[in-house]
TrEMBL record:
Protein name, as recorded: Polymerase beta nucleotidyltransferase domain-containing protein
InterPro entries (alphabetical): NT_sf, Polbeta
The Polymerase beta nucleotidyltransferase domain, residue ranges: 28-95
Gene3D superfamilies: Beta Polymerase, domain 2 (3.30.460.10)
Signal sequence, start to end: none
């Protein structure tokens, strides 16, 4: 599907990587906009002007990626964002290096290893949070079941607090 939408070499490479990340469970991939600056034609989009991509062109590329994958992909201009904040918000940040290889935008180490490690760490955290949430839900259901005929709201609140605190990994 990706190759039928994108014909240039860098789009196919990046598309394969994004596909792999989504297969691993990523929900949002963030592309580093200025990394695309050396590519002058991408289908009907002109990528141009002083080594930068115009904002509307960035959005257009991001929109095409998003439609192809039916998942959220954002492209941001480098000068418009703080790298650490972006990683904290979205977990995953991609760019292309000078040899047209996909790499981590923070370390510039070619992928897959750096980015996939970052992704797996994020997925483990999400799984841990899910487990905690399920445990908390079970504990709360037990507490509510035990207190369904009781009027002692103070004891109920204490047990709810205890149930929530003691499920964390």
């Amino acid at each position: 599907m990706f190759k039928s939408v994108y014909s240039t070499e860098w789009q196919i490479k990046l598309g394969g990587l994004v596909t792999e990340l989504y297969l691993l469970g990523a929900t949002h991939v963030y592309l580093f906009g200025s990394s695309l600056h050396d590519y002058h034609q991408s289908n009907d989009i002109d990528i141009c002007v002083d080594g930068n991509i115009k904002l509307q062109e960035q959005l257009s590329i991001g929109d095409k990626f998003a439609k192809a994958f039916e998942k959220p992909i954002d492209i941001v201009h480098a000068s418009c964002m703080d790298m650490n904040e972006t990683i904290m918000k979205h977990g995953i940040l991609l760019t292309l290096d000078s040899q047209n290889r996909a790499c981590s935008a923070t370390t510039h180490i070619p992928l897959p290893h750096t980015l996939i490690d970052m992704l797996l760490i994020e997925l483990k955290y999400i799984e841990k949070e899910k487990r905690n949430l399920l445990r908390a839900t079970d504990s709360l259901n037990d507490v509510l079941h035990r207190h369904q005929y009781s009027d002692d709201t103070e004891l109920l609140n204490e047990e709810i607090d205890y149930a929530c605190i003691n499920v964390v990994d």
